[in-house]
Design a protein that fits this description.
- The chain is an alpha+beta fold.
- Helices cover 20% and strands 38% of the residues.
- The chain contains seven helices and 17 strands.
């Protein structure tokens, strides 16, 4: 097995963690290649691989950082569909699997293939039917008003059937994976990450009747800007994709690509939720103790 190593190169502590790990791997004859951005600092030029080729040259990719780092890397290597294991050196970390200090004992499980692969849905967005400018997302695609003082007016069509026009600060189209990201902050529900659904969540709608909706993953969603400023951000996984103008349309569909996440056999999504969201223990939630 060949491991691909990458992560957030801007954090010095990550560089040191990776350096110590690779020194151990060299002593134990474990095969690996390194993201070229890391290679110079780590003096691993002979194992240097461009980030876009990392998936082709390795069997499992290890990303060191937070969820944002994993999202960035996963889209860079998405064509290879190589499984990704996230090592969390960030904060919340819904996608990352383990902490750096757990990795030495988990390497044996990886080498013995004692893990599972969970396929996560990806979505793609096309503006005005221009397939050459396709945008890919793992968490979400969303339109928001940015610094514009007034509300936007956004029309929603699902499967070529008009649904609603939102007067709001924007709208989020997310995967089940993205249901614990921006959509959650906007009042959307949490979906089990492997379900094949898309989630539509308005941002601060100007009516109480505008509620989040869940639709089948194979449905096509169309958004049309009816009113707003001359430049309206269309964001993909928290980063600006393109700017839109009133009158433009965005079509969002499920992609043929997936994110293949590595989970160890002990992984449990509900335990992750409880830990990351700070939910109480069983005893704290036991009303008999009140």
């Amino acid at each position: 097995m060949i491991f691909g190593i990458t992560g957030n190169i801007e954090r010095k502590e990550i560089i040191e963690v990776v350096r110590r790990l690779l020194e151990t791997w060299e002593k134990n004859s474990i095969s690996f290649v390194v993201d070229s951005r890391f290679a110079v600092t780590l003096k691993e030029k002979s194992r240097s691989v461009k980030i876009e080729d990392l998936g082709v040259k390795s069997d499992i990719i290890l990303t060191f950082g937070g969820d944002g780092t994993l999202l960035y890397i996963a889209k860079k290597i998405s064509n290879s569909q190589t499984p990704v294991l996230g090592i969390n050196t960030g904060h919340l970390g819904f996608l990352t699997e383990i902490k750096p200090e757990e990795l030495p004992e988990k390497i044996k499980d990886l080498l013995e293939k004692k893990y599972k692969i969970e396929k996560r849905v990806m979505i793609e967005a096309v503006v005005d039917g221009d397939e050459s400018q396709k945008l890919y997302a793992i968490n979400d695609v969303f339109i928001d008003k940015g610094g514009y003082a007034r509300s936007l007016r956004i029309g929603l069509t699902i499967e070529n059937q008009y649904c609603n026009t939102y007067t709001s600060n924007g709208i989020i189209i997310s995967t089940a994976t993205g249901s614990t990201a921006y959509s959650l902050s906007a009042g959307g529900p949490i979906l089990y990450p492997s379900v094949d659904n898309l989630l539509i969540t308005p941002i601060c709608p100007h009516t109480l009747s505008a509620r989040p909706m869940i639709v089948p993953g194979n449905f096509s969603i169309n958004l049309e800007i009816f009113a707003g400023p001359d430049e309206i951000p269309l964001n993909v996984d928290g980063h600006l994709g393109v700017t839109l103008k009133p009158g433009q349309k965005v079509t969002i569909t499920k992609s043929d690509l997936t994110l293949n996440l590595v989970h160890f056999l002990s992984h449990n999504f509900f335990s992750v939720l409880s830990d990351k969201l700070g939910w109480g223990s069983r005893n704290e939630n036991n009303f008999q103790n009140i």
